[in-house]
Amino acid sequence: MGTERLEGGTPRSSYAQLAADHGLVPQVGRPPFRTYIRDLWASRHFIWALSTTRTYARNENTYLGQVWAILTPLLYAAVYYVIFGQLLGTSKDIENFTAFLIIGIFVFQLCSGSLSRGGSAIIGNNSMIRSLRFPRAALPISVVVTEFLTLLPAIAVMLVIVTLTGEPPTWSWLLIAPMFLLIATFNVGVAMFVARIVAHSRDVKNLIPFTVQVLRYTSGVFFSIALLVPAEPAATLLHYQPYALSLELIRGPLLEQFTVSWLEVGVMGGWTLLACVGGLVYFWRGEGKYGID
Amino acid sequence: MGSTDELNGTPVLIADGVEVTYHITGGSRSTSDPTKNRGLRGLLGPSLLPSSGRRTFVAVRDVSFVANHGERIGLIGHNGAGKSTLLRALAGLLPLSGGVVYTGGTTALLGVNAALSTSLTGAQNIELGCLAMGMTRQQMHERYDEIVEFSGLLEAIDLPMRSYSSGMSARLRFAISTAVTPDILMIDEALATGDARFRAKSMKKMEEVREHAGTVFLVSHNASTITSFCNRAIWLEHGSVVEDGPAEEVMERYTESQQ
Asked: Is there a contact between B78 and B236 (Cβ–Cβ < 8 Å)?
């Protein structure tokens, strides 16, 4: 955006001189990274308002409304229970397959939602981008917050089901709060990545449903990677990929049969850091170019 | 920016060689020339090959001018002349592919297409719009009643925006965009919608901006709107400036060219 005019060496045009004389500054499409972070922090109220109103608006057009946020994953759970648990026998050796499956589906819902809606975070909000000025990273961040808020009632239902299927509530259940925070933060990074990629080449959007399916089948939503994939290095690779770890991080504190190790939390922390810093820098580098497509 | 009269006549916004290029994905390029449709490219369709998957379209080219405090500038031209695009670029909402825009104050853009969220209620849109413009929650609550009042929506404020008539949503947008008196107010055809009473209110608001030594940009292809409100007009054609000068003179020649 013409920033080269400001750097020393190049002669200033008469307009630039006039602007400088009257204290006018060039509109920059992309502010410095620090400024961007500050702007983003300043727009936190906007992000929150955007997320809450969208959560509210999402199921508003249907009779059952918010109930669908719980009903849809439960229907998935029922189908997976029959097909994978009963017919293909992935429930073998898992003591409480119902709770295992419910947690898997509900947590994966957060990840898949962030990925697919994150892809439309920019291209789905072009009219807003073209009429209001705010740091565009607010959009992918708000996508994940919305996904999380939509999931909240489902998490409550999840905890009830887990209790009903014979898992006694313990103090370790409290651990799922920081775990969810970690998972959500990871997904913020991912959403920023896909938001920019899709904004620049829309074809990628068609790959997202495919990616979600692949992740669903390789993250142990309806089977245990540890129990079903004994061969190395596949087992370790699958185990430590962030989406599989996300499910482990919630199953560990809730299910008696499973535990979560510090190593797993550490690796997930690493993934989160990588996704967030990488995602934010990558997204910021495209700032000032959103809304042109 | 100050609000004194002595500011009048000093620059508030400078466009220096502004150029805006749109990237367009989709649409068929080869239909106009069937001979290019042969072979692999013809079989696989145009978007498979990167050279034809995306096209660019220069909507605004090399536009330069200086806008001063207190000016009311009308942008005139045919549909597709680049008026709205230029306005968005000046407001910093569209990236430039060339040139620089220098500004010294806050800008607010008001447009017919400036859709907020149609599935949300008017009240929620006020909240979102205010926060997006950088207001704090407290400032937003302080202004809320005033905005609702100005929009004249009354009980309809709690209905989803998709149930509004075009006049109602235009009023709401105008009320939100002008909640803070901006230094530069940009209006995109907004006066075409809304009833006479609201038009009078809008005029008053624009006058208020101008009195604060601010600048108003107004896009319209309605000659009488421009002549009645603006003191300067910029005539655009195919993205370039044809003429820039006192509104009456420019409008006279623009109207002549229409006949």
From this structure: no
Instruction: Express each pLDDT in B113-124 by its tens digit.
Output: 445 677 788 888
Q: Which of A29, A46, A60 sits opposite B132 (nearest CB)?
A: A46
Residue B99 φ then ψ, to 5°: 85, 180
| B131·A61 Cβ contact <8 A | no
Centre a 10 Å sphere on the Cβ of residue B244 and count the other Cβ atoms it contains.
Answer: 16
Distance from CA of A160 to the nearest CA of B (A): 32
| pLDDT one-digit tens code per residue, B150-165 | 888 888 888 888 888 8
Tell me the chain A residues in contact with residue B111 when contact means C-beta distances shorter than 8 Å: 131
3-state helix, strand, coil in chain A (%, to 5): 70, 0, 25
CB atoms within 10 A of CB A138: 23
Chain A residues whose CB is inside 8 A of the B182 CB are: none
The answer to whether residue A11 neighbours chain B at the CB level (below 8 Å) is no
Name every chain B residue with its beta carbon within 8 A of the beta carbon of A128.
115-117, 132
Kindly report the pTM of this predicted structure.
Answer: 0.80
Identify all chain B residues contacting A18, using CB atoms and an 8 Å cutoff: 11, 14, 66
Type of residue at A97: F
In 3D space, the residue among B239, B238, B231, B240 whose CA is nearest the CA of residue B250 turns out to be B231
Mean local confidence (pLDDT), B191-201: 71
Which of B137-166 are b and which e, b meaning 16 or more Cβ less than 10 Å from the residue's Cβ?
A: eeebeebbeebbebbbbeebbeebbeebee
ipTM over 0.85: no
